[in-house]
Amino acid sequence: MDEFILNLKEQFEEENISINQDSKFRDLDGWDSMTALMVIAMLDELYDFQIDPEEFKKYEYVYELYDLIR
CATH number for the domain including 7? Predict the structure, then answer.
Protein backbone atom coordinates (compact mmCIF):
# COMPACT_ATOMS: atom_id res chain seq x y z
CA MET A 1 0.00 0.00 0.00
CA ASP A 2 2.82 2.44 0.84
CA GLU A 3 4.41 2.04 -2.59
CA PHE A 4 1.01 2.44 -4.24
CA ILE A 5 0.38 5.68 -2.36
CA LEU A 6 3.80 7.02 -3.38
CA ASN A 7 3.06 6.21 -7.02
CA LEU A 8 -0.34 7.84 -6.74
CA LYS A 9 1.16 10.99 -5.21
CA GLU A 10 3.46 11.31 -8.21
CA GLN A 11 0.41 11.79 -10.45
CA PHE A 12 -0.50 15.05 -8.72
CA GLU A 13 1.17 18.36 -9.47
CA GLU A 14 0.98 19.32 -5.78
CA GLU A 15 4.31 18.52 -4.12
CA ASN A 16 3.25 18.23 -0.48
CA ILE A 17 -0.04 16.46 -0.92
CA SER A 18 -1.15 14.24 1.95
CA ILE A 19 -2.65 10.91 0.90
CA ASN A 20 -3.49 7.79 2.88
CA GLN A 21 -5.55 4.71 2.14
CA ASP A 22 -8.75 6.38 3.38
CA SER A 23 -8.31 9.52 1.27
CA LYS A 24 -11.01 10.42 -1.21
CA PHE A 25 -8.61 11.00 -4.07
CA ARG A 26 -11.14 13.02 -6.07
CA ASP A 27 -11.35 15.56 -3.23
CA LEU A 28 -7.58 16.17 -3.07
CA ASP A 29 -6.08 19.48 -4.18
CA GLY A 30 -5.03 19.26 -7.78
CA TRP A 31 -7.49 16.55 -8.83
CA ASP A 32 -8.79 17.18 -12.33
CA SER A 33 -9.48 15.25 -15.52
CA MET A 34 -5.79 15.23 -16.46
CA THR A 35 -4.88 13.70 -13.10
CA ALA A 36 -7.56 11.07 -13.61
CA LEU A 37 -6.02 10.10 -16.96
CA MET A 38 -2.57 10.00 -15.40
CA VAL A 39 -3.81 7.68 -12.64
CA ILE A 40 -5.47 5.40 -15.19
CA ALA A 41 -2.19 5.30 -17.15
CA MET A 42 -0.23 4.61 -13.94
CA LEU A 43 -2.48 1.65 -13.13
CA ASP A 44 -1.77 0.25 -16.58
CA GLU A 45 1.96 0.95 -16.72
CA LEU A 46 3.01 0.05 -13.18
CA TYR A 47 0.43 -2.57 -12.24
CA ASP A 48 -0.65 -3.98 -15.63
CA PHE A 49 -4.26 -3.16 -14.75
CA GLN A 50 -6.49 -1.65 -17.41
CA ILE A 51 -9.67 0.17 -16.45
CA ASP A 52 -12.18 1.95 -18.62
CA PRO A 53 -12.53 5.65 -17.73
CA GLU A 54 -16.27 5.18 -17.17
CA GLU A 55 -15.59 2.32 -14.74
CA PHE A 56 -12.90 4.41 -13.02
CA LYS A 57 -15.54 7.03 -12.16
CA LYS A 58 -17.13 4.56 -9.71
CA TYR A 59 -14.17 4.73 -7.32
CA GLU A 60 -13.52 7.40 -4.69
CA TYR A 61 -11.07 6.08 -2.12
CA VAL A 62 -7.40 5.17 -2.40
CA TYR A 63 -8.01 1.75 -0.83
CA GLU A 64 -10.56 0.98 -3.56
CA LEU A 65 -7.94 1.53 -6.27
CA TYR A 66 -5.42 -0.51 -4.32
CA ASP A 67 -7.89 -3.38 -4.01
CA LEU A 68 -8.34 -3.33 -7.80
CA ILE A 69 -4.69 -4.04 -8.51
CA ARG A 70 -4.26 -6.76 -5.91
Answer: 1.10.1200.10
- Could you give the CA distance from residue 60 to residue 57 in angstroms, rounded to a whole number? 8
**What does 1-68 look like in DSSP terms, one character per residue?**
-HHHHHHHHTTSS-SS----TT-BGGGSTT-SHHHHHHHHHHHHHHH-----HHHHTT--BHHHHHHH
Segment 55-64 mean pLDDT: 97
Total tally of structural domains belonging to the chain:
1
Range of the domain at 50: 2-69
pTM for the structure as a whole? 0.93
